[in-house]
Amino acid sequence: MRSTFSSVILGLVGLTTAQTVTERVIPTLSPQIDALPSLTPTILDPTAPDSQACPGYKAANVVQAGHGFTADLTIAGADCQAFGNDIADLVLEVQYQTKERLNLKIYPKHISPQNSSWFILPAHLVDEPAWDGKTTANTSDLKLDWSNDPTFQFKVSRINTGEEIFSTYGHKIVYEDQYLELLTNMVDDYNVYGLAENIHDFRLGNNYNQTYYAVDAGNSIDYNVYGVIPFYQETRYHSGGNTTAHGVYARNAHGQEWLLRNSTIAYRTLGGSFDLYFLSGQTADGTSSALTTISQFQVGCIGTPAMQMYWTFGFHQCRWGYENISVVQDVVDGYKSANIPLEGVWNDLDIYELYRDFTNNQVTYPLPAFTNFIETLHANGQHYIPIIDSNIYVPNPTNASDAYSPFEHGAELQTFIRDPTTGDFYYGDNWPGFSVWGDWLIPSTQSWWTNEILTWHKGTPFDGIWIDLSEASSFCAGSCGNGRLDENPVHPPFLLPGDPLSFDFLYPESFNVSNATEASSAAAASSSQASVISASPPLPVATTTTMGRTEPTPGVRNLNFPPYVINNVQSGHALGKSSIAPNATHNDQYNTTEYEMHNLFGLQISNATYHALLQVFPGRRPFTVGRSVFAGSGKITAHWGGDNTSTWGSMFLSISQALTMMMSGIPMFGADTCGFTHNTDYQLCSRWMELSAFFPFYRNHNVKAAISQEAYRWSSVAESSRRAMKVRYSMLTYMYTLFYYAHTKGETVMRALAWEFPNDPSLRETYGQFMLGPSILVTPVLIPNVETVNGVFPGVADGTRWFDWYTLAEVDAQPQENKTLSAPLEHINVHIRGGSILALQEPKLTTNATRNTPYSLVVALDSNGKASGSLYLDDGYSLVPDAIKLVEFTYADGCLKYTSEGSYASTQPLANITVAGLQSTPHDYGHGPYANRSSSYWGHGKPKGSTLEFGGKNCSSDGRSVSYSNGVLKVTGLEKDTGNGAFESALSLCFGW
């Protein structure tokens, strides 16, 4: 959150002119500039040295091992010093780690403990994949070849086909203390995906720059945002042959850039080492796919995502602007009155006393009244989640009444990041005033953080934690609180949402068409507000000092302004703008700097919060939602898309953002539904509530300077939400099962069409539609003022069948047809893929109530009359469940069967079975003497006298009925037959025709 007024924040250097920090201000070039040469050293400074003119390295002293080799790399000429000081002697390590994974490391030969973090990312901070103890060069999917002609270069290719997947041939490797570079050659018109986090088209294209530096700047389209996950997956289509896919993961946490160009990708970092993992994407039969590659990345490199608690998949409501308990209670009542499900109530900064973490405003959120409110939520099967910001307020030392125990406890333990110029704590600025940040490199910080969360929970019995500003964000440049703590509480030098002259009058595209009168009034009010501000500016005029690219100094690293300028979205592209300065130091024995640690802050604070919640709720899965993420964050946290806008474009791009998160092992992802900044309208909010119903994390959230946007505010949005949530809540079992496979196998939850149908190149850029797992196709409306939507139905050329979710009618579509579908405002198109079996439940207003309803099975047949599916069951919350159950469904030759493994007891019965896609009429159902007879009349090909069995026992026909129409067979009234639980025994049900 909190970049609502980023345009103001970005113009400020500090809180006073005395705090001005020298920074480079270079004209910003678009990340997509066709005129740029493919190997421009930096898009920000065309006069900078050409790093490819550096001498490169020569390999020598090769030592073979069964699973790889090592070698020395020695600089092949005079020092280059393009963007740092050259490292003359390097070590090359190549490991065939597993059959599908090859690792290449390059790092300095002479590393002292004091500078190890400059170059080597510690394994205790970020998982470091290792050799499996059995794979050799002879058993690997991949091989690495290298040459010293003219300098060291290498390529990675497949053993079975010789296909090159990565090659630096023809390019120099550059290794300096503040700049690393290598380039790989790419095939024509390549298809690369990932490099999260980005707000960009799903297929990245070949004229794109991905900058990595965690930043508080809203949803910066085509620039760096909150997350840093340096992994890409490439897909190659082959005429007349199967598609191939592979992946590349660069384990490095420094600020970095990936420059995608027509024939190359350049990988550049501001430090660290080359630690590259090449993933074959292959399965046992030698074929490869995007889904397999993504699974290999998660299982083998970063760890699979956490299993989430069942209730977290419900709908959540939040707003920055719930001024007191009564307002929040009105929201809860509003959802109930509108008959719209509400699972979680969230508080933004409004809950706090003067924006300070772990406090309660005793006027607006007083204890124990607020405690009682939360306990009432719990009694109704609902949950409560508050925000915790990543900064800690520093009390005014001259004001005895300004005590703040979270700071005092941390200061006693010396747990905060330090200012290298004073040796004292680093004092930046954030919502409460001058603030400090925890140093997650030392154990005492975890103890302090856990204690604060445990203490706060006693009065505010939350169910999870929302971590914000974890980039980490500071509203000034440098340690601006030095010598000024007696001014605290100093609030940000910009208008706060809700202040006079701060109201947001922006509305979505086409608002002037659908709401002409309101649009005219908003335009007039906006002009009036702007005139008042212009006549008497409430803010100081921002000042900046320009500075060109720094020159490397032998033996010295310039941390705040490194010689290579990455395209950081912040003003002047300075690394220290709106964040902790890179030269700030940590309290570990080596005084590691923020230059190395910046991109890891979000991972570390989420990890600390995860472990604190294990103390609050022993044995229960922690629920955290963090803004800044790194590779591996999915093991400990969910993630939301940050400060998006109430625009159709922001809604559209949330799909590609979500798909990259699925690739990155963070499947519990969602965007702020209806938009965070600016004002939504009934059209946009209706469509967005529908779309987000199929994202794993489903939350409506916006800023207090805009209008309220709870789903019940408009009748059309309320109806859209009810209908979409009815679908979502009925398939919570399916989504939960998908998460089980994500957690255990690294599978994806939301899926690109191209992943499920890999041999169709027409899908390579399709993300206006997406799939939920392998079985559900979602086709949302993403533009205003329409009542239809176009969508493709992939796979029909090969016999794939699709069925409308609502009617189970089969879709009549041609291969690659962009079919027009009816989509009135309250409707989102959802289709079931033929060959799927789904276990569903009756939707209620909470997940717990839904979970306690009977099951139904929907069988959608493929072109061979077959289908399959699975269902995962456990208690929904335990970190290590005492019991689980995995149910496998199959349908073939007219018989539905399921088997189950595990001891978890689910007592809900099976009520109904529906089979869609029958291509012949079973014994004239619905006609003649057998109309509406029990299902025992229809078994094993006989018109009567056969039996329906559950667990080998003959079932009574009382209360059961069968109907058939247009290829859809329905069996209802099975509750008596499964009274001990739907899946407590095996079932075999056969229909004859």
TrEMBL record:
Keywords: Glycoprotein, Glycosidase, Hydrolase, Signal
Biological processes, Gene Ontology terms: carbohydrate metabolic process
InterPro entries reported for this sequence: Gal_mutarotase_sf_dom (IPR011013), GH (IPR017853), Glyco_hydro_31_C (IPR048395), Glyco_hydro_31_CS (IPR030459), Glyco_hydro_31_TIM (IPR000322), Glyco_hydro_b (IPR013780)
Enzyme's top EC category: hydrolase
Catalytically driven reaction(s): Hydrolysis of terminal, non-reducing (1->4)-linked alpha-D-glucose residues with release of alpha-D-glucose
Catalytic activity, EC: 3.2.1.20
PROSITE patterns for this protein: GLYCOSYL_HYDROL_F31_2
All copies of domain Glycosyl hydrolase family 31 C-terminal, residue ranges: 746-838
Gene Ontology MF terms: alpha-1,4-glucosidase activity; carbohydrate binding
Signal peptide segment: 1-18
PANTHER family associated with the record: ALPHA-GLUCOSIDASE, P-TYPE DOMAIN-CONTAINING PROTEIN
Similarity field: Belongs to the glycosyl hydrolase 31 family.
Name the record gives this protein: alpha-glucosidase
Native source species: Pleomassaria siparia CBS 279.74
